[in-house]
Each structure stands twice: as structure tokens, then as C-alpha cells.
């Protein structure tokens, strides 16, 4: 994926903003939706100088004029949440959207760019294969190495698997879970992605990649994204985990896990992570009939 340097027309930015805000996660999170709408509109209207922590707190987060951005980290926390939600959106539902809205770290001014598909350097994809016996001979002469090179470049796991003569272990990237706007949900969400990463790594069912932007595993593209939400109600903390195809944004698997609200966060995180690991391990090992009836998890047979 790359971006052109020419500016994106405001009308296209607003269309993209509407797409993002209409997604399920942004519909659920009023603050992130307002935050994003505010900074996008201020930027489009040429008022970037006004996009400061104090103005965001007053205009978006319902703080009064006594708000002190030096002592209150509220805006920084909400900006970090917004960045994670945007990252999750573009890795899943928005993977094919034509316009990127990014919020670089260190500030609150968004950046708009166009998205264009990556064409592997030196690779020319013909509109149709050459006909006749000569064409068939030429296609048959492709080496496994050549097929693998193109397959990895265009991120086609099916082509890779065929070239290697067998199935490959899907690679998953675990993203932070998104909490509802209450302290118990935030506490539960804060470390659950790390617990799940440890659990999946221990079970060796999926190849677990490092987080985007880290120094670990960022040279590889994930086949799927594991993420979710955390919310609290009726004396329970509900964690909803979802495995989403990184290629087309479709849901591969999703399930909700409930823990008592009074249960210590570390214990609850560990229990939910263990359940998620077990639920993903069963279908990968060909034991699909043992999976819980309410779980949608045809992982083994998915077109990643």
C-alpha cells in the first residue's frame, strides 16, 4: 500500500469520514467518533492551529475552561484510543477504502492520503495468459521460487500453499481490545491482548506477529487480525473477540466471553485468553465438532 502526494479533495475526505463513523466500532464509541469528526472538519476548514489538547477537551470531551492539559492526560488517552481504532478499521472493514485518514503520534492534526494497490517491483501481471501450446509451455516453466516470490508480494496465501505443496500456518496479528467508556472495561482491556498473544504463542496453533510499529515481525503481513471489545453490564464483564480476514475484512470467527465484574483483572484476562486459545486450537487441529455450538469458527477451512 502506498499513497499519492497530491491532496485529497475535501468531499472525498468527508465521504471517508462517513464510512469510518458508520462502522460498528465507531458507532459504539461516541467519543472517538466526535474526536475524529472534530479534527477532520477543523483541518478541512484550515483551522489546524486550533487543534490543541485544550480545544479538543472543551469541544469534544465536555470539559470546561478549567481544563489543564498539562496535568490531565484525557486528550492524550482518547487520541491513543482513536489511533488504535483507525488502525483496526483499516486492517479490517476499511482494508479496501480509497482514502486514508491517519492521526500521527505526537499531535492531533489528521493526515489525508490516497490509497493505491502495491504492484511488486519488476512484476508485470498480464491481462490474460498467452494462448496456444507456446503459452502453456511458458506458464508451465515458472519455477516454484518465482511463484512464491509473486505470491508473497501480492499476499496470496493460497498461491503460497500450492507452491509449497501443503497448507501453511496462518499468521495472526493481535491488536489491543477496545474498551467501553468505564474504568472496569478499560482495566480489563488494558492487558488482554498481551495475554492472548502469550496463549496463542504457547499453543503454537497460529503464527503470532508483533504489533504494527514494533521492531518484531513488522516485515510480515498478517493473514488475519484478532481484536475485540470489552464492556461491562449486569454484574459481568463481556469480552467479545473477533478474528477478521486481513485480505477482505470478513469475519472468520467471533465469540463473547463473560467474567464476573468482581473478579481480579489479571485472573479474568488469563481465563479469557485461555478460552480463546482453546477455541481457536480445536478447529485448527481438526476437532471442529468439539467446539462450542455458539462459536462461529471455521478457521481450518477459511480462505485467509
Produce a short descriptive summary.
The protein is built from 10 helices and 8 strands.
Highlighted features:
8 strands; globular; disordered C terminus; two-stranded antiparallel ribbon; Rossmann fold; 304 residues; six-stranded mixed sheet; disordered N terminus
Q: How does this structure look, described?
A:
The chain contains 10 helices and 8 strands. With 304 residues, it is of the alpha/beta class. It folds into 2 domains: 10-114, no CATH class; 171-301, ABC-type transport auxiliary lipoprotein component (Rossmann fold), CATH 3.40.50.10610. Strands 3, 4, 5, 6, 7 and 8 form a 6-stranded mixed beta sheet that branches. A two-stranded antiparallel ribbon has the order 1-2. A hairpin with a 5-residue loop joins β7 and β8. It is globular, with a radius of gyration of 22 Å. Mean pLDDT is 76; it is low at 1-5, 131-168, 213-219 and 285-303.
Amino acid at each position: 500500500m502506498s499513497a499519492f502526494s497530491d491532496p485529497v479533495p475535501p468531499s472525498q475526505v468527508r465521504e471517508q469520514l462517513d464510512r469510518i463513523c458508520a462502522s460498528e466500532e465507531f458507532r459504539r464509541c461516541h467519543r472517538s467518533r466526535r474526536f475524529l469528526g472534530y479534527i477532520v472538519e477543523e483541518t478541512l476548514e484550515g483551522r489546524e492551529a486550533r487543534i490543541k489538547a485544550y480545544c479538543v477537551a472543551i469541544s469534544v470531551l465536555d470539559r470546561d475552561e478549567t481544563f489543564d492539559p498539562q496535568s490531565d492526560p484525557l486528550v492524550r488517552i482518547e487520541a491513543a484510543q482513536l489511533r488504535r481504532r483507525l488502525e483496526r478499521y483499516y486492517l479490517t472493514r476499511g482494508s479496501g477504502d480509497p482514502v486514508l485518514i491517519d492521526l500521527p503520534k505526537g499531535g492531533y492534526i489528521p493526515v489525508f492520503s490516497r490509497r493505491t494497490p502495491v504492484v511488486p517491483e519488476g512484476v508485470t501481471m498480464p491481462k490474460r495468459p498467452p494462448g496456444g501450446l507456446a503459452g502453456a509451455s511458458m506458464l508451465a516453466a515458472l519455477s516454484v521460487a518465482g511463484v512464491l516470490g509473486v505470491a508473497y508480494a501480492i499476499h496470496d496465501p493460497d498461491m503460497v500453499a500450492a507452491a509449497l505443496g501443503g497448507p501453511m500456518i496462518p499468521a495472526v496479528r493481535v491488536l489491543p481490545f477496545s474498551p467501553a467508556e468505564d474504568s472496569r472495561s478499560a482495566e480489563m482491556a488494558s492487558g488482554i491482548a498481551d495475554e492472548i498473544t502469550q496463549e496463542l504463542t504457547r499453543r503454537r496453533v497460529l503464527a503470532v506477529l508483533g504489533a504494527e510499529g514494533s521492531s518484531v515481525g513488522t516485515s510480515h503481513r498478517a493473514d488475519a487480525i484478532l481484536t475485540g471489545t470489552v464492556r461491562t453490564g449486569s454484574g459481568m464483564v463481556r469480552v467479545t473477540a473477533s478474528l477478521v480476514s486481513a485480505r477482505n475484512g470478513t469475519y472468520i470467527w467471533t465469540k463473547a466471553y463473560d467474567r464476573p465484574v468482581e473478579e481480579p483483572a489479571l485472573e479474568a484476562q488469563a481465563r479469557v485468553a485461555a478460552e480463546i486459545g482453546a477455541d481457536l486450537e480445536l478447529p485448527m487441529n481438526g476437532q471442529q465438532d468439539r467446539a462450542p455450538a455458539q462459536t462461529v469458527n471455521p478457521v481450518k477451512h477459511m480462505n485467509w
